[in-house]
């Protein structure tokens, strides 16, 4: 990753946080980014009012050199207020008063047990704290395979739900890394995420998920190619992105 890419990723994270997490929660916040990737959310949170920020990811080396220290200096962030951990979240325990804000951005579809991860995020919050789970797309979305470079939405939507997708991956030259990331996708749906939030004893604050109007006509065009027996509900095919904000209730 070059310097320009690293900077754009942080600016992107700033945009996500500022548009989806109310400002009142960010001021003076202890911030946790689960599935932090290159740490862009950690730096972004500190530029938006957080006083400390922790990022957790299973693989701290996946993105190569992310220029974290240089980016912290570029954005005026004190690295002493940051912590990046490469570990399984279930090896960790956080104690009261917990975090004011937890974020899981573009990660929930990659984890092996999304219900357990939502419970972890809820337990990491202080009472009254807020958690954002946002991702685009979930597995059943038009490009839910996450192999955009090989299968464009415009010409091959929902291709991973075609009966011959395995052969199509071979023909498209999908490499081992891409295949691994595809096979790890957990197929969680928007409705299941809502249920997991409720099961964890959390309270939904806002559901800003979008079912885009470009998808119904596209689905009618490509429906004959899709193995609909693989699809929980047709509505799941129409979800563009998922954005869920929930809180840990007091008491």
Count of DSSP E strands? 8
**What's the pLDDT, averaged over the residues?**
92
Largest sheet: 8 strands, mixed
H and E string: HHEHEHEEHEHHHEEHHE
User: How many individual helices?
Assistant: 10
Output the radius of gyration: 19 Å
Counting helices, strands and paired strands, the structural category is alpha/beta
Global outline: globular
Helical content band: 25-40%
What does this molecule look like?
- The chain is of the alpha/beta class and 251 residues long.
- It has helices at residues 3-20, 23-26, 40-47, 68-74, 114-124, 165-172, 176-183, 190-199, 215-222, 234-237; strands at residues 30-34, 52-57, 82-86, 99-105, 125-135, 203-207, 210-211, 239-247.
- Strands 1, 2, 3, 4, 5, 6, 7 and 8 form an eight-stranded mixed beta sheet that branches.
- Helix 1 (3-20) crosses helix 3 (40-47) and helix 5 packs across helix 8 (190-199).
- It is globular, with a radius of gyration of 19 Å.
